[in-house]
């Protein structure tokens, strides 16, 4: 089965991707990229992918939208977007543990991708600090809309305390 | 003081010196309801005559929380706004303020459910940061509404809160 793929990013070997027949079509399911070869056209690549669940191998996958699941798409885009929106509020942790990206659902079943920024352990949250965080989150949100548009899920930015100040005090 | 302002003020006071987790939960719930009543009062003011007495209050009771959140989806992006406009045949320019309200309202409503119903808190979200963040969202909605309320888009926004998907015929 051959499918022509148009994507705005370059999947790498080992990447887990989800394939749709087209923008509004049903999902073909999750696949793992096994091989990636350039073609004569510099902008075209040929992928060998394997279905994740039943092991069916597809040599090429016709006119799908090939995309990472929303969570992965956000995770990959986030470092660059955060860098563009800097400076990052000083209350947030830096380095590898600065944030976590997680898929879940709102209470009514709306899918969402949560991006939690971890607060430094000594930070005492307050309404004034929340104002600074929300300014930063607004910038991230605008940049997401501008850079990658609709990722097919609700993206929400929030902060996470290492532990609740109230619990810490008790 | 209108109920909406009163609720927001109450949430603010709870967050100044929260003593228990219940204070945080009430602050989040109050922040959400402040926004709900702000918009519900605006809807009633737009559609209700001054008499008979009590009619405005009854109209506010018609509004449904989840339906409001879903209706606001039309105002979150330029594409969805254009779609609404095409569906109802009335021009609707994209408003960043209404988009901000739509997004923050959904997030706040979700936080309210966590605050009022989730005793397990499996994600460990409930804390002062979460409550402050929710309050700040509510405050921003108030500010955005103040800027947007006199625009034609805001009038469409309020009508959409009542009619939801029904008027996209």
Describe the structure.
The complex is a heterodimer of chains A (170) and B (169). With 170 residues, chain A is of the alpha+beta class. Chain A has two domains: 16-67, no CATH class; 70-169, Alpha-Beta Plaits. Chain A is built from three helices and eight strands; from the N terminus they run βββββαββαβα. Chain A has helices at 70-85, 127-147, 165-169; strands at 16-20, 27-38, 45-51, 57-58, 65-67, 99-105, 111-118, 154-160. In chain A, the strands form two sheets. In chain A, strands 4-3-2-1-5 form a five-stranded antiparallel β-sheet, with no helix packed on it. In chain A, strand 3 and strand 4 (57-58) form a beta hairpin. In chain A, 23% of the residues are buried. Residues 55-59 of chain A have low confidence and may be disordered. Chain B has helices spanning 3-16, 21-47, 55-62, 65-72, 78-88, 96-117, 128-148, 152-163. Chain B has one domain. Chain B has eight helices and no strands. Chain B has 169 residues and is an all-alpha fold. Chain A binds chain B through residues 104, 106-108, 110, 119, 124-127, 129-131, 133-134, 138, 141, 145, 150, 154, 156, 158-161, 163-167, and chain B through 12, 15, 18-21, 24, 66, 69, 77, 79, 100, 103, 106-107, 109-110, 113-114, 117, 123-130, 132-133, 135-137, 139-140.
- Assign the structural class of chain B, choosing from mainly alpha, mainly beta, alpha/beta, alpha+beta, or little secondary structure: mainly alpha
Q: What is the radius of gyration of chain A computed over CA atoms, rounded to a whole number of angstroms?
A: 19 Å
Question: What is the chain-wise order of helices and strands of chain A?
Answer: EEEEEHEEHEH
Shape of chain B: globular
Mass-distribution shape of chain A: elongated
Overall structural domain count of chain A: 2
Number of domains of chain B: 1
Task: Write down the CATH class of the largest domain in chain A.
Answer: Alpha Beta
Work out the number of β strands of chain B.
0
Q: Span between N and C termini of chain A?
A: 61 Å
Low-confidence stretches of chain B: none
Largest sheet of chain A: 5 strands, antiparallel
